[in-house]
Amino acid sequence: MRDQERGRRRGQGKLEAQVLAALREASEPASAAWVQEKLGGALAYTTVITILTRLLAKGAVTREKVGRSFVWTAAADEAGLAALRMRRVLDKESDREAVLASFVTGLSQQDEEMLRELLTRTREAEE
Amino acid sequence: MGVFVFLPLVLPLTAWPIARLAEQHLHPRAATWLLSAVAGVFAVCSTLCLGLLMVVGTAQLPGNPLPDGWSDPEVREAVPYDEVAGKAAIPALFAVLAACTRLVWRHQRVRRRAERALAGLPATPVAVLPDEVPYAYALPGRRDRVVVSTGMLAGLDSAERRALFAHERTHLARRHHRFLLTVQLAAWANPFLRPLRTAVTYTAERWADEEAAQAVGSRRTVARAIGKSALMSRGAPVATLAGFAATGPVPRRVAALLRPAPAGRIWPPAFTTVGLAAWGAAVGTTASALSSANSAVTLFLILHAATPM
Question: Which of A127, B171, B229, B300 could link B138 by a cystine bridge, Cβ 3.0 to 4.6 Å?
Fold first, then answer.
């Protein structure tokens, strides 16, 4: 059960990337039906809508109302989408510092002054 | 088991001197290994003894579901101050187990979420994400990856970028997340082990810095990369009490890289301060292991004798 759930969620990350990739191939704002067709009809129409809505929440696509339905435009590429998602992970996890070893950690005022001095010394030594 | 069962709870104090001195006097690789191993052994022994105390504690609970022999006077007398210690051990053990479970669960959650965030990207060892906020992380997983933002790369020249990647690759290649998880679990298992967590968090970074310096062939380049990214990443200054603030980890790492490379020796000479500290921790660890083994065997024998088979 747990594994299935996990697999499904990981799958969603991939689906988001696929939908975004399809949308990026459109020369003009595209409808959800167009995206569905572009993906070979493997996804249900409602699934496409769900994924587009999720991408909208992340800021990876924009939409505008044309007539009675929406047309969608890609606002980011796959790397941009990953960046938006990564930021959410980093912002959400208050204790991420404990989990992910960060290249650098916070500086106090005193640290900052000392660091600037050390860097100046490095530069002088090289000149 | 007597007083021996309490020893592993306080013996972690014998590791404080080495936790303080290792950073200065040992190679960061040796320091990370030594402190993590010491923390791991202390944590296991301390938790085992809490468990033993809890067994004695449950013998006093009215209507406990255990066999009658469990509450025999002999069992209770195995521990001095059994009433207080036994009762205190029950919530303490539960708190330790809950905190450790939560920590492991969080670790896995962050790793899973990060992996999911990168789904759909080509499976390259480095993922460069377009983001102005400067960050760089090593993400261990089924597929190890270095994640770095364009904001971070923009502030570094090509040699400094190589240093950054070499640093993050060392974290992954040397499985630093396992050391960090070990000391974090240990710090929850026994609060006296917290200085070891702080020390290992630092020495693991130093270890990655040293290997990066070897990989790029210049200690100064690594020092500059760290310094520049720290100045880029600084958000609000970290709140510290002015005057009391010890120098933070970043300037210490930079300063260490501007000094000559540390000697690669594993164990310090015995008759130096750091040597004595290392031996002190080693003796403390052994005593802790022996005490908890002694207590476990004693309690087992008492219970075996008290329980009619």
Answer: B171
